[in-house]
Amino acid sequence: MLYQRLVLTLWLAIICCVGGWQDLGSVSRIQPYGRPFKLNSLRDSLPNTRPRARRESSRRRPRGKYEYNLKRTAIRDAKNRNALCLDGSEAVFYLSRNPDSKHWIVQLQAGGSCGTYDSCLDRSKGSFGSSRNYSDFMTGTFVASDDPGENPMFSSWNKVFVPYCSGDVFVGRRGKNKNGHGMNMFGHFIVKSVFLQLIEDYRINKSNTKILFGGASSGGLGMLANIDFIQELVKPAEIRGYNDGGWFTLYPNFGETANAGPPYFFKVLSFMFHTLWGGFVDESCRANMPKAEACLYGELVFKYLSAPVYVFVAQWDSYQLQELVHSQFPTMRLPPELPSEAEYLGKFGKNTHRSLRRVINSQKDGVFSPACFMHAFSGENLTNAHRTLACEISGKTPYKALSEWFISNGTRGTYVEEPLDKPECNPSCCSKLCLKCRKPKPTVEYDEPTEVIIESGAVRWQQTTLITWVLAFVVYSFVHWKDVVLL
């Protein structure tokens, strides 16, 4: 009898330890929607891919493993569909398939563009111009991640990542026989081919399907140019876009004469668009603009887009300030060293705010625009991503603002800081590029209901279970303490 009671006592002790360990979170399946986010970003190239054995390619990759969640997928009949990279290799896309979800993320890679023959030739020898050395698997980041800690809003969705190998911000329609440099610039056809294959294989063109389509930098420009065209392909599915850092403005470079017509870079863009790319832009915009290439500027194309769009743009886009500058003009120094530079930046920030006026006032679109010096929030590089994605306006990060916009169908999620005469950075994104930072404001707390995502049929009552077992053990030990001592 005493032996049985002792065994029961030990059994209760083990159950208390195991139950407590589970309830403290080691195997909990409850994920509060509003918990802090650990975010990552897309890479500008494909350094997060690693070769895997070919024998693994046929295995179904478990959804619980978040690394290497995207599998290389060939584009069928790529040659006839003009889905070719700069060097003539066939373009591909990466897929993370979840049969339990009917919703999709389609993400275009960041990566600039090329204009001269030498730069395009050099590009064609690497991952930005050729698919020959792409790996079988890669890890998705930002909204392409399967990790619910990194991507709580879209982690269970199907993911598609489209590598950027055409050098044309995903708008090109000109092959090597007609291209000024003798290379394929078929970005628009690559995007079209990917969506056609998704329709053929997974029937994403259904009324109950949601699609988030976008990208960073050049991928954001590609989204603006293609989204209404893709909307027609996937009808009646619901498509929305996001543009991260692909919102350039028609503002003159530092040292360039103001009020002298479009900035000099517009001439460079015109050359690439017509001579190299044979570019595709939104058709409604093209019909109303004297020059089609103007439709690559967000502030000009935006009013013609019918699909809802979310925009991420810093008040001072560091890429436009320092990279889209012809050699005849001085490069903007960051932080500014002269009063004239600070004055220019003040005007530049006000112009960014002006360009967003239509987005700010929209009932379906949204924008996140802090007083920061940066380019893309999610796609510049992994080194900066921890800082850029942690930037806050009124307590909201870029990811949180995007999620809020998506959930509310555009009624919420817009966060824009008013520009000042002289640049002062938001303290949450203060960097070596800033001359002065604003004083931090108290963090705004939001009382939001916790959304519980349940992956199985049972909910574990974490706190009450632990307390119940502990009390049971204490009571039993107290009642039978004499038997235990005598033994």
How much strand?
5-15%
Report strand order across the widest sheet.
2-6-3-4-7-5-8-9-10-12-14
User: Radius of gyration over alpha carbons?
Assistant: 27 Å
Instruction: Specify the number of helices.
Output: 14
Shape: globular
| Intertermini distance | 11 Å
Number of strands: 15
Reading the helices and strands in chain order gives: HEEEEEHEEHEHEHHHEEHHHEEHHEEHH
In terms of structural class, how would the helical and strand content be classed? Answer: alpha/beta
Q: On the 0-100 scale, what is the average pLDDT?
A: 82
Range of helix content: 25-40%
What does this molecule look like?
There is one protein chain. Helices cover 32% and strands 12% of the residues. The chain has helices at 2-26, 117-124, 187-202, 218-234, 264-277, 283-288, 298-301, 318-322, 339-355, 357-360, 382-388, 398-407, 462-479, 481-486, and strands at residues 30-32, 49-50, 70-74, 92-96, 104-108, 137-138, 158-162, 210-216, 238-244, 309-312, 316-317, 366-369, 373-374, 415-416, 452-454.
Keywords:
alpha/beta, 32% helix, eleven-stranded mixed sheet, 487 residues, signal, globular, 12% strand, two-stranded antiparallel sheet, hydrolase activity, PAE/NOTUM, Pectin acetylesterase
Q: How would you sum up this structure in a few lines?
A:
This protein is of the alpha/beta class.
Topology summary:
Blueprint lengths: L1 H25 L3 E3 L16 E2 L19 E5 L17 E5 L7 E5 L8 H8 L12 E2 L19 E5 L24 H16 L7 E7 L1 H17 L3 E7 L19 H14 L5 H6 L9 H4 L7 E4 L3 E2 H5 L16 H17 L1 H4 L5 E4 L3 E2 L7 H7 L9 H10 L7 E2 L35 E3 L7 H18 L1 H6 L1
Parallel strand pairs: 5-7, 5-8, 8-9, 9-10, 10-12, 11-13, 12-14
Antiparallel strand pairs: 1-15, 2-6, 3-4, 3-6, 4-7
